[in-house]
Specification:
Blueprint (H helix, E strand, L loop, with lengths): L15 H11 L4 H5 L5 E4 L16 E13 L6 E8 L2 E7 L3 H7 L5 E6 L2 E3 L2 E5 L2 E4 L9 E4 L4 H5 L4 H14 L10 H6 L5 H9 L4 H33 L10 H10 L6 H15 L5 E6 L5 H14 L3 E5 L3 H15 L6 E4 L5 H13 L4 E4 L13 E7 L6 H8 L7 E6 L5 H7 L4 E5 L10 E6 L3 H13 L3 E5 L7 H18 L7 E4 L5 H12 L5 E4 L12 E6 L7 H8 L10 E6 L5 H12 L3 H17 L19 H17 L9 H11 L10
Parallel strand pairs: 4-7, 10-15, 10-16, 11-13, 11-14, 12-13, 14-15, 17-22, 18-20, 18-21, 19-20, 21-22
Antiparallel strand pairs: 1-9, 2-3, 2-5, 3-4, 5-8, 6-7
The structure holds adenosine-5'-diphosphate and magnesium ion (MG).
Adenosine-5'-diphosphate (ADP) binds next to helix 11.
Length: 697
């Protein structure tokens, strides 16, 4: 039998009780499971400190010396053991409050010990409570990186604290003398400079030095990420073989006439590149599932319009879904204005469409009279039926789930092409992992002539200066957003907060010179819409709002975005809000107002915002701060249970792993060749319990 499959209870030091605890608390059932319980860090035990310096070091440290005196003080429950410990620099008390008599009997006077613990000031003197202590062993000194394992309170209570787990691990390694299965082919190991599996698994627990521990980690992370990428790429390959897509081979009058006569400006290089990528998808014979990433204001709408025109030129209908009614309206107006001259019929469907309007829309969708349908989630409803749907554009991806995408697939046969547009840049490492089923395009260039937005961080105490600055800008004809955060715990507090702000702003900016609008979540949809429209039309100069304005509103004349309590916002939200300004030709400002006291994270967020306008850079920092799970909202769902790799830190390893996976699949797309047998078997094992595996087994 495979040694690694041995039940953990067979390990010396693990009886039935500990075995069941290990199973319940850490999911460890076999030797193999224990082996894969990796330490999350190491304590550097190569370094020794002098006793006289204990007071200057605020972390656990290591001492070498002798016990010169032992005494028990206090009675019964208050009993303490004090050992006076000495090295050439001085003396310090080691103290124990538990296990006093047992520890006392095991300590020897005048023997050299190594002691590990953290100094504490007690009254006027320093001592070390409950240190780790062991007799000095010259031979053991070699092993100077001590693994630290995660554990739980229950395990702790049965002696399976980190040190206890380390003991089990030593025990295991002293018995383990065969070789584990190597999942990575030799050439992959060599090309990427990776250590073999046995060495990696040994060194990750008991590295001889830092370099060995790093090599072990890199190797294990690589393996994890490599098989993840191989799986994603393989799925995509299999998916493409399965799904037939509409072919739009024709570039016709609508596209040509619009492109040559009606685009008010030259496309940016990035827009052209993306349109080419989409055209290629349209010709491929497979269904397009493409994610288009581009910072706010990068001109994604135009790409959507051009794609829709190609679709219409080929005799199909197109639809565009926006996350809010305000946005849907805005798209409707923009698109009508642009397409008005080329004689297309565009309809708008939202939650507020009247029954009579819906009837007209339905008829036109069914008889093909409608070329384009723009709207909100209302389009997803089963009652919305197209004659020939060819393309679905979804604006602002993060509010649309996979299930909703699938709903749109079902509205055409074969399924329509899907273009998902998002203004929330996703770091490359995440896009490659979370959107494995989508191809990704990026618009990484803003239209020419944009003046970069100046982002400024100001403390609340400077509010008066801020107000006078706003006054000047408004007198010049500009418009201003002032945004308040939503604090989730209390809607009422939020509301009061916002209302207080509104009042003080109304006082500081009095009628008739200034006109202040307010929009918030508790208003009726109609009122919100009306207030928003007044601001869009320039009838009011200042918009006080909660984050309802976050998404997509386009008011080119608005040039100042003030974000109140900016420390309460996450980076991606701050960046989204900033994107509301800088859309016109005037110099724009984003002003982050915060209290004086900021956490380290909050400071970093403010600095990031003031240092860069690049959404991808912002997203990278956001990823580092929040971690992949939080960023993608998958933390709880366990969608991506990585054992050792961390997408927020291991981008480089991920790129290498992906590159290797791509190379292998490019010569052998379904892993059918003999030389890839090892990988094929591993993939079959991985895909066993997942859908779609049939094709490669
Ligand atoms: P987003 O990517 O945020 O959806 P939009 O599509 O709304 O950006 O475009 C923002 C603004 O930039 C719009 O007013 C649009 O007309 C303008 N725009 C788009 N492409 C170009 C271009 N190539 N040159 C100049 N302006 C452009
Ligand atoms: Mg947009």
């Amino acid at each position: 039998m495979d040694f690694l499959k041995t039940p953990i209870s067979y390990l010396k030091g693990v009886g039935p009780q500990r075995a069941s605890l290990l199973n319940k608390e850490l999911g460890i059932i076999t030797f193999n499971d224990l082996l894969f319980h990796f330490p999350f860090r190491y304590i550097d035990r190569s370094n020794y400190h002098l006793i006289k310096n204990v007071r200057t070091i605020d972390e656990p440290l290591q001492l070498k010396g002798k016990i010169v005196h032992i005494k028990e003080v206090g009675a019964r429950r208050q009993k303490r053991l004090i050992a006076l410990f000495e090295d050439e620099s001085g003396q310090i008390e080691l103290q124990w409050f538990r296990g006093v008599s047992w520890i006392k009997s095991s300590l020897k006077i005048n023997t050299t010990y190594q002691v590990y613990g953290k100094g504490k000031l007690y009254g006027k003197s320093w001592n070390i409570p409950h240190p780790e202590i062991s007799e000095w062993d010259e031979a053991k000194k070699q092993n100077n990186l001590q693994p630290v394992y995660s554990t739980t309170e229950k395990l702790n209570n049965s002696g399976l604290h980190s040190k206890g787990i380390e003991k089990l691990m030593s025990q295991f390694f002293s018995q383990w003398n065969d070789n584990p299965k190597e999942n990575l082919p030799l050439n992959l190991l060599n090309e990427n400079n990776l250590v073999g599996i046995k060495k990696a698994l040994t060194d990750i627990h008991f590295p001889k030095n830092k370099s060995d521990s790093i090599k072990a980690r890199v190797r294990l992370k690589f393996e994890e990420l490599f098989f993840l990428q191989l799986e994603l790429l393989l799925r995509k390959e299999i998916g493409k073989k399965k799904s037939k897509g509409l072919v739009f081979s024709h570039i016709g009058d609508y596209f040509n006439s619009f492109y040559s006569n009606h685009i008010p400006f030259e496309l940016t290089g990035a827009q052209k590149k993306v349109v080419k990528e989409i055209r290629k998808d349209f010709l491929s014979g497979q269904q397009m599932n493409r994610l288009l990433q581009g910072d706010v204001g990068s001109g994604k709408t135009l790409v959507a319009i051009l794609s829709m025109l190609i679709c219409i030129d080929n005799g199909y209908q197109a639809t565009l879904i926006a996350p809010t009614e305000i946005l849907a309206n805005q798209h409707f107006e923009t698109i009508n204005a642009l397409l008005g001259k080329i004689n297309l019929s565009v309809f708008l469907l939202t939650g507020s469409s009247k029954k009579s309007e819906r009837k007209v829309i339905s008829e036109n969708l069914l008889n093909g009279g409608a070329n384009i349908l723009i709207g909100t989630h209302a389009i997803l409803e089963d009652s919305v039926v197209f004659k020939k749907l060819g393309l679905v554009v979804i604006d602002e991806q993060h509010r649309f789930g996979v299930a909703q995408r699938a709903k749109m697939w079902a509205k055409g046969n074969p399924s329509p092409h899907i273009l998902v547009m998002t203004a929330t840049p996703i770091p490359r490492t995440l896009a490659m992992t979370f959107y494995g089923d989508l191809d990704v395009s990026v618009i990484d260039e803003l239209p020419p002539g944009r003046k970069p937005i100046s982002t400024i961080h100001r403390f609340d105490s400077h509010r008066l200066k801020l107000f006078s600055f706003i006054k000047e800008e408004v007198k010049r004809g500009r418009q201003v957003y002032i945004v308040y955060p939503l604090i989730q715990e209390s809607e009422k507090l939020d509301f009061n907060n916002l209302m207080d702000g509104y009042e003080s702003i109304s006082r500081a900016f009095p009628l008739p010179e200034f006109k202040v609008s307010i929009v918030h979540g508790q208003m009726k949809a109609d009122d919100k819409q009306m207030e928003m429209n007044r601001f869009v039309k320039g009838e009011t100069n200042i918009m006080v709002a909660t984050t309802v304005i976050e998404v997509g509103v386009n008011v080119p004349n608005a040039s100042i975005m003030v974000i109140e309590s900016a420390e309460r916002f996450g980076l991606s939200q701050l960046h989204q809000l900033r994107g509301r300004v800088g859309r016109g030709s005037d110099k724009s400002y984003c002003i982050l107002m915060t209290g004086n006291k900021l956490t380290k994270d909050a400071k970093l967020r403010m600095e990031t915002m003031t240092n860069t306008n690049d959404g991808f850079e912002v997203a990278e920092v956001d990823l580092k701060l929040r971690g992949a799970g939080d960023l993608m909202g998958t933390k709880q769902s366990g969608l991506l249970d990585l054992k050792i790799a961390d997408l927020s830190k291991d981008g480089q390893i991920l790129m290498l792993a992906r590159k290797s996976a791509i190379e292998i699949l490019s010569s052998d797309p379904l892993l059918e060749e003999n030389k890839n047998l090892l990988l094929r078997n591993k993939m079959i094992e991985i895909l066993k319990n997942k859908p779609n595996w049939g094709k490669i087994s």
